[in-house]
Amino acid sequence: MQLSNGKTLTLILLSALLLGVLYCYISQSYRVVSLGSVWEEITADGRSEVHIESHHLVAPDSLQYKQPSIVSGRTDVVAVTPWLAPVVWEGTFNPVLLDSIYKPQNISIAVTVFAVGKYVMFLKDFLETAEQHFFIGFNVHVYVFTDQPTKVPQVKMAAGRQLTVCSVPSSKRWQEISARRMELIQTLIEEKLQNRNDFIFCLDVDSKFHGRWGTESLSGLVAVIHPGYYRDDRSRFPYERRPESRAYVGPGQGDFYYCGGAFGGLLQEVHQLAKTCRSNFEADAKEGIEAAWQEESHLNRYMWINKPSKVLSPEYLWQDFKPRNPEVYIVRFSGVVKNYAEIRPNV
Ligand code: UD2
């Protein structure tokens, strides 16, 4: 059907009018007055709603707790980094206060744990002790990555806590199992974990919880100081030292030596970390180079540039074979003694 020029013009004018009316309606209905992190929204029915994107912690006003002090406290350890991130040690935080701040937020904590090959034997203790010490009273979702789903033990979990088994292929090299974790963490966050306010911790399976690990560990990007090197000079840290690797940390560089066996934070932060470490690991592999301690080396490089917003002391990943140092009042999570030759697919 052919339209005359006059009719076409009328049609165009009418469409423009309609679009104009629609635009006015939408912009009136959802008018946003932005004042930085405070904004006002005028809803479709004309009500005004003020939103505050708060970066401070909100406590219940009825709570009573021990008066904090800035002149007395622990003097045997350093509880802040040079970029002013807290270093969490026993005695530097109030667990009751922190729990009552986070409880009303109804947060969820995802946990990833890998149990490939003989490492399935560690799952039972890991899961059972997590039920006793890890984020008690909060929503916890454990993701177990394994090549033997039928061997994942049935562990009774409290309300609000659940476990999902994810199948992964077996591998003939332990280095590959350890390193592929970053790729799987990246994919898990992209495909299954969407809520931007939730947190994730990625933990080694050959470990047990012995004490509280809870809300004091929450922050944007969280690293754990390795128990083996925290009293050493940085020249002795086992960073990747070959400049051709993307995990390279040069002489005179590096803050602390962090664990590959425990790290975490907000989903979007950990996603960025996992994605970067994975792509650097793969780019290195294409050039025939594997960093000294696989993903742990890439994580250390990442944390040198992207400073963690909270650092957990070695209380959060000790090793059973190490006698406890005096500054470690409590061991919260610790690697069990294991015979590498017996449990790894290669030596
Ligand atoms: C250190 C790190 C570990 C990783 C590794 C270097 C700590 C305490 N540990 O531990 O995180 O950075 O050095 O690659 O920081 N796994 C399996 N099946 C295997 C082998 C490994 O499932 O056959 C998984 C398992 O979750 C294990 C993790 O990979 O906990 C790390 O491997 P590891 O425990 O053998 O490495 P380890 O103890 O030398």
UniProtKB/TrEMBL annotation:
Belongs to the glycosyltransferase 6 family. It comes from Dicentrarchus labrax (European seabass). InterPro entries: Glyco_trans_6, Nucleotide-diphossugar_trans. Binds 1 Mn(2+) ion per subunit. Mn(2+) binds at residues 204, 206. Keywords: Glycosyltransferase, Manganese, Membrane, Metal-binding, Signal-anchor, Transferase, Transmembrane, Transmembrane helix. GO terms for molecular function: hexosyltransferase activity; metal ion binding. SUPFAM superfamilies: Nucleotide-diphospho-sugar transferases (SSF53448). GO terms for biological process: carbohydrate metabolic process. The active site is at residue 296. Gene3D superfamilies: Spore Coat Polysaccharide Biosynthesis Protein SpsA, Chain A (3.90.550.10). Pfam families: Glyco_transf_6 (PF03414). An alpha-L-fucosyl-(1->2)-beta-D-galactosyl derivative binds at residues 226, 296. Its cofactor is Mn(2+). This is Globoside alpha-1,3-N-acetylgalactosaminyltransferase 1. It is found in: Membrane.
